[in-house]
Every structure is written in C-alpha cells, then in structure tokens.
Amino acid sequence: MLLxxxxxxxxxSVIIIVHExxxxxxxKIFGVYCQEFAIGMGPKIFSKKGKETEYSLRAIPFGxxxxxxxxxxxxxxxxxxxxxxxxxxxxxxISRLKxxxxxxAGIIMNCVLALVIVSFIILANGTYAKSxxxxxxxxxxxxxxxxxxLESGDVIIKAAYEDLGxxxxxxxxxxxxxxxxxxxxxxLTITYQRDGKTYDTQLKKEFVEVDGALEYGIYARQQEIIExxxxxxxxxxxxxxxxxxxxxxxxxxxxxxxxxxxxxxxxVGVFEVTSQAVxxxxxxxxxxxxxxSLNVGIFNALxxxxxxxxxxIILLIEALIGRPLSEKAINVLMGVSLVIILGLFVFxxxxxxxxxxx
Length: 358
Prior knowledge:
Layout: H1 2-29, E1 34-49, E2 54-68, H2 96-125, E3 127-130, E4 136-139, H3 144-147, E5 155-161, E6 166-168, H4 173-179, E7 188-194, E8 197-203, E9 206-208, E10 213-215, E11 218-220, E12 224-227, H5 233-256, H6 267-280, H7 282-300, H8 308-321, H9 327-356
Antiparallel strand pairs: 1-2, 3-12, 4-11, 5-6, 5-7, 7-8, 9-10
Helix pairs in contact: 1-2, 1-6, 1-7, 2-5, 2-7, 2-8, 4-5, 5-7, 6-7
C-alpha cells in the first residue's frame, strides 16, 4: 500500500511537472515574466528562488501552475504584481499567437511524455503488433455476421448503435472491436464496402460456440508483427497513441449523448488502477503514466475557459472581434467552467467511492 501511494504521487507529480514545464519553457522563450512555478495547490511546503522564478511545492498534490505576468484568468493561481514589469514581458504584451503557443505547450508536453514512454516500452519488447485495417478477415459459420451477409474482405467504413446515437468510422479493426465491446443487447448497424459498392446491414450479438461468448462472429485479418529498433519505435508509439486518442474521443463523444458516464473515474479510480498496474509490474505502471499523461493533455484541450483549450478559444474569439473580451465576461466564463469542472470532479469521485463497496 505504501509503495502504491508513493507511485501514485509520483505518477501525478511527473504528469503535472511535465505539463506546467511546457508552459514555463514556452513563456520564457517569449520573454514572459514567470514569478512562480508551482507543483500542487494550497499552502507552500517548500520553495526555492531561481534567477527570476520561484519554484515551489504545495501541500495538495493535485494540479499546479505557472504564475505568469498579466495572467489574471484563474483565481486559483498566484497573481503577479506587474507594476514594475515591462508590458512586453506580460501575456497581454505579446502577440495572441505566442499566447496560444504558451497555452498549448503543456498539452504538447503531455503528449510528448506519453510518446517517449510508449516508444521505449515497445523498443524494450522488441516487436509491435500493429492492428490490421477495419476489414473482415473471417466470418464464423452460423454467426450473426454470416446471417447478416458479411463476407471475408468486406471493408467496414462505419459502425453505429443508432438507438444510442453513437457511431464510429473505424481506422483499424481494433477500433471496431473496442467500439462494440459490451452492447450485448443493442443492434449494430454496419456500413461496409464490397467490390466498390456500399451496403448496410444490422446484427445483434449471439452465442458463438467457437469462443463460448456473445459475439458477432467477425474476426480480423492477421496482425502485422513489426521488428522494432531505435528508429521505428517512434512510429510504433505514434500508432499506439493514435489508437488511444481515437478511443478517448470516442468516449467523449458518447458522453455528449448521455452514454458512458459510469466509466468515468477520478483520483480514487486512478489510485485503484495504479494499484493494479503496480501489481502487474513496472512496465504496466509506466504504460499507465503514459496513458494518463495523454488523457490529461486531451482533457486540457477541451474548450472550457478554465482549461488551456478554452483559453485558446478565447484568444481566437478576441482575434476575430479585434478586441479583448471584457473582464466581466472572462470572470463569468471562468466561473461557469470552474463549476462544471468541480461538479465533474465530485461526480467521478462519488462513482469511484461507490465502486469500492460494490
């Protein structure tokens, strides 16, 4: 338990440090004065003054920030007194493009961290199994797929649960399989191509004797096994993270139609997953760090004003209208988005706690 707690704190700390470090480096490159680089929130428990920036560790090991001159959008962060700071060293004093780069730098760093970890895991394994394209390999005799008319070689271009309002245009067969996981009682509509023509068919999972489970009876083509070296491990890592990213956006899309809320997790759930990863070994733990870093990057890209993606949207709106939004409008947007984030945090934490007793 102590080891799990320690590694859980390390996991969060590394991801936060990398994210905020991205903001810090980009800000310094563009000459923005950064008063504090903080890991965690709440009261300071340790700090060290650098040449210009104070580096601090705060009591609550969730979150972090870079206190940049002229950044007044977030009341949870330290405000910088700009009285003696040249205007050109503040956020408003640089171009909107530079500010957008600063906001996006944290997201980019989270993705880079994920790529580095995943690529070296793949390199250590020596081979990488690349998911085949979304093409039907084999169809089980007597299965729902055969009854629906699917044949080997059919290219799946869309899969949808129309009653649920969710769909996917699968890039790989793994995309298709992940999308159809569960849904034992739902009717799946598949749009596929054969000999240059497009067809639609519907099918529902049935018990397939070959695997002894409820399935559609569709198998993929054989995976491509790639021999990995220091040069191609990066493309393999990109391929893996591209799949993970598609799954994240698929899950986000389902949330907008009221599906999948039961699968959301907060810090308690992440701790449980961390415990499982630690039990499975160091590689599983590193992979978890990579995937959570990717999730944090994508989450911060969402268009909520309190997040990096939302602040980029605000900058783009200001560029379109030719003037900054009023402080009142910014405060309202920040307040609403803060309520949404806190509400989501309470919801997922409650779900995590309930799961512990089920």
